[in-house]
């Protein structure tokens, strides 16, 4: 079968080559891939990966071989799922506890955006507890996680603030789900009950000064690549506030795999309650160009490759 594999060439980081078929374990279904969505984390790893590595976390397609242990969807089911690696291929083995069956009207292209970005948004918001009437800020607001998080927070009844790097960085924000927009966190004086933070560097330090007493900052990335210098004295007045780290795969393994949450996200998307943040949709033969665009921060929202 064919797959997009690492080339060890930063200018053209992936190429379509022939690789062995996946060999599913008893608790894995084999899925014929129709669409994959790209994430900055896997694209960054490509820059240092050995030649021949097959990347890819997000997958949507059709079950061609059900799991041998009888778990999960039957053959022929349209599904969305999450894998540790290897999704950028014609077929991939997926753990059944990370698979969800798609509603009939939901396309594979739309569904492919859900696993990493949607699950990260949903589970990070869950760290804030009951959000009705609370103030929630999301940094990196125009990215895939950010756009989903703002919409999901709005559905819970939270007051939402999109935090962007500049006044020109509002492209990709959903029409619904944003009450306010702030450029950075240095100039406002309001306090937030929950901050989802993925930029790192000085923005994470600023978040410590904007969290409310008893609030929580959930950090799940460092897209700036910068270290954070913390003025801990400025954090002390935020009595009982907390800074916590989130890692998606570890969280899913600790709490049942993610099928239930994927089903929730797919249902919301199919019902029109979520807006799909797709900025780029291209055939997978153009994978190298799309990876490069994502790494160069020329993608607002999600990038999806269709497997043809």
Described by its quaternary structure, the protein is single chain
CATH class of the largest domain: Alpha Beta
Gross geometry: globular
- Any low-confidence stretches, pLDDT <50, length ≥5? none
Quick rundown:
This protein has 308 residues and is of the alpha/beta class.
Description:
This protein has 308 residues and is α/β, with parallel strands linked by helices. 25% of the residues lie in helices and 28% in strands. The protein has helices spanning 40-46, 108-111, 114-126, 144-155, 201-210, 232-235, 248-254, 259-270, 287-295; strands at 2-6, 14-18, 28-38, 58-65, 78-82, 91-95, 99-101, 135-138, 159-164, 180-183, 192-197, 211-219, 242-245, 278-283, 302-306. The strands form three sheets. Strands 3, 4, 5, 6, 7, 14 and 15 form a seven-stranded mixed beta sheet that branches. It has a six-stranded parallel beta sheet with strand order 10-9-8-11-12-13. A two-stranded antiparallel sheet has the order 1-2. It starts with a strand and ends with a strand. The mean pLDDT is 93.
Question: What is the element layout, followed by pairings?
Answer:
Elements: E1 2-6, E2 14-18, E3 28-38, H1 40-46, E4 58-65, E5 78-82, E6 91-95, E7 99-101, H2 108-111, H3 114-126, E8 135-138, H4 144-155, E9 159-164, E10 180-183, E11 192-197, H5 201-210, E12 211-219, H6 232-235, E13 242-245, H7 248-254, H8 259-270, E14 278-283, H9 287-295, E15 302-306
Parallel strand pairs: 8-9, 8-11, 9-10, 11-12, 12-13, 14-15
Antiparallel strand pairs: 1-2, 3-4, 3-6, 3-15, 4-5, 5-7
Helix pairs in contact: 3-4, 3-8
Summary tags:
308 residues; alpha/beta; Rossmann fold; six-stranded parallel beta sheet; globular
